[in-house]
From TrEMBL:
It is a multi-pass membrane protein. This is Photosystem II D2 protein. It holds the Pfam family Photo_RC. InterPro entries: D1/D2, Photo_II_D1/D2_sf, Photo_RC_L/M. Keywords: Acetylation, Chlorophyll, Chloroplast, Chromophore, Electron transport, Iron, Magnesium, Membrane, Metal-binding, Oxidoreductase, Phosphoprotein, Photosynthesis, Photosystem II, Plastid, Thylakoid, Transmembrane, Transmembrane helix, Transport. GO terms for molecular function: chlorophyll binding; metal ion binding; oxidoreductase activity. It is found in: Membrane. Its main location: membrane. It comes from the Eukaryota. It comes from Gossypium barbadense (Sea Island cotton). Gene3D superfamilies: Photosystem II protein D1-like. GO terms for biological process: photosynthetic electron transport in photosystem II. The chain crosses the membrane at residues 33-51, 99-124.
Length: 188
């Protein structure tokens, strides 16, 4: 169930932005953060299930790790069995426990940092800054809006709105007659 939920969220977030050139880096960072955190939850769940399913000594006072009980002769789960199980599911296995636990630490921490950077970037309204030259992107895609083209479109929109009939001033007839009688000043 966890695998299906994580996979659905990751694929949905990836599919949502793969064809959009205008999606900003901050939104992608936030999506990487979500994928990292959910991926870490998936890793931890798989790790816990693997350790539980590869226990071979379940006696009184037996711990999973020797470090918790110095009198325990050996660890009571099989890294070889866990590696085999992992490689059968994903096709990849970790070479030792340190690499496995480092990876399980690295994925969520990286995901949380990416998510935090994405949220801070959106909170500070940094989504307008792509760190990519907008003019280069505009040359590749004529529909891509830069700050310059957005300003032009905004001004054109304001002019078009002001040109509507309902926004034009309607002067009383008396004023119109007086305005027509005034000669414009010739400055030449």
């Amino acid at each position: 169930m966890v695998v299906v939920a994580c996979g659905t969220v990751v694929v949905a977030s990836w599919d949502k932005t793969r064809n959009q050139k205008t999606v900003n880096n901050w939104k992608r960072g936030r999506q990487k953060g979500v994928a990292g955190v959910l991926g870490a939850a998936l890793l931890c769940a798989i790790h816990g299930a693997t350790v539980e399913n590869t226990l071979f000594e379940d006696g009184d006072g037996a711990n999973t790790f020797r470090a918790f009980n110095p009198t325990q002769a050996e660890e009571n789960y099989s890294m070889v069995t866990a590696n085999y199980f992992w490689s059968q599911i994903f096709g990849v296995a970790f070479s030792n426990k340190r690499w496995l636990h480092f990876f399980m630490l690295f994925v969520p921490v990286t995901g949380l940092w990416m998510s935090a950077l994405g949220v801070v970037g959106l909170a500070l309204n940094l989504r307008a800054y792509d760190f990519v030259s907008q003019e280069i992107r505009a040359a590749e895609d004529p529909e891509f809006e830069t700050f310059y083209t957005k300003n032009i479109l905004l001004n054109e929109g304001i002019r078009a709105w002001m040109a509507l009939i309902r926004n034009q001033w309607v002067f009383p007839g008396i004023l119109l007659k007086k305005i027509d009688t005034i000669r414009p000043v010739d400055w030449n």
